[in-house]
Each structure stands twice: as structure tokens, then as C-alpha cells.
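Quick one:
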Amino acid sequence: MEPVPTSFHVGPFLFHTYGFGLAIAFYVAYRYCEHRLITRGLGAQKFGSFAFIMLVLGILGARVAHVLTNWSYYSAHPTQFLAVWQGGLSSFGGIVLATPVGYVLARKWWPSVPVLAMADALIPAIVAGWALGRFLGPQFMINGGGHLTHQWFGLHYAGQYGRRVPVPLIQGSEDALLWLSLIFWEHRRRVRTGFITAVALIVWGAVRALDEHYLLAQGRSGSLSVQIAGLLLASLGLTIAWRVSRQRPVPVSD
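Output:
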């Protein structure tokens, strides 16, 4: 069986499937975020600039984190520092760099909107985009699979020997289920501001740490730091949930 394709040609042009898929996922997430801001009356006039800054910082932080946690390889292959088309973006690195800047911009451009209300509006769309991104991005990158497996669901990935656990498909399914759960909570009950954000952080952080430990950790440098980051994100969600539990519930509509 051939590995999943990592590139394709359109006439004389070569496209890397990984980057092309992530671009589609970002566009979908961007439009969905914009829709949610508008339907909630929060205003989307500045959102194009906001999204562009978040994208640039997210990619930069994700790449820097990946290079640093795999320094033994990149120190010997410095020409690969910028080879993002082969994969190598650490989600948590992007979150660490983009989040504080996003907070500052949200307070500046949406001063009358509570930060958690802004997060509640954006996070379900981000999770949906993340789910699509896992299906269309890492699924088609070099070394995109998990542990070796002899099970029927194993797939071949470029740069890896043997059949591998299809981690991108598993994580994409997990994120899709999380998105459906967030939408269910939004529409089925009265929720406090910040509830959606808290649930998303707790579930995504904990599941990401478990995935890293059970599906990806073997033979990967930086795995422990990813697991710790996932647990820290879940802990932040728990902190927000505790604060939210002391608030008065308000109805949320889409």
C-alpha cells in the first residue's frame, strides 16, 4: 500500500498537501468565527486583522516550539528550520505565542465585550477548524502517523516504516465530537459566560495529553512537554470553570 500523498501537481505547479489542507481549514474556521461574532452582535469589523495576526503568530510559535523540542535533529539539519511543508507545527507553541496577543487585541478592539464572551463565540469555530485541519493537514504530512500497528486500521505514511496508527484521523474525530458537544450545550441549556471555553480547554487539553502519551510518545522527543502542556491547558479550563460556577447563568443563542 502506498503512503498517503504529501504533494500533488497542478500543471507545472507543485502543492504540498499538508499546507493546502491547513489553508482550507483556516479559511473555514475564519468564516465560521466571523459568522458567530456577527450573530452574537459582537462586531466583526476588525476580525480580519485579528485573524491574520493570530495566524502569523500561531504558525511562528508552533514552528519555533517544534524546532526547540526536536533540537537534536534540527541542530544537525539547519536547512530544515523553515520546512513547514513537511509538517512540524506544535499546537501548543502556537497557543502560547498567540493567546496573550489575542487577549490584548480583544481588549483593544472589543473593549465592551468580556473576554470570556469573546472566547465562547470563537472557540467552537476554532475547534471545528482544528478538526478539519487534522483531517486535511497532518494526515498528509511526512511522518504523520503514530505507533506501529498490525491492526486493520493502520495506514502507511511517507517517511515512516510499516503501518501506523492514523493519529490525525483519530484526533480529527475527537475534535469533531468536541465541537458537536459544545454546540449541543449552547443550544440545549442556559449556560454561564465562559462555560463553553472551560469545557473546550478541559477536554481538548486532557485528550491531547492522552493522545500524546498513548499514540505518539514512542521515539519522539518533546513528547513529555506536549503532555505537560495539555494538562496545563486542562487545568486552566478547570480554573475558568470554577470562576464560571460562581456567575449567574445567561441564555446563549446562535
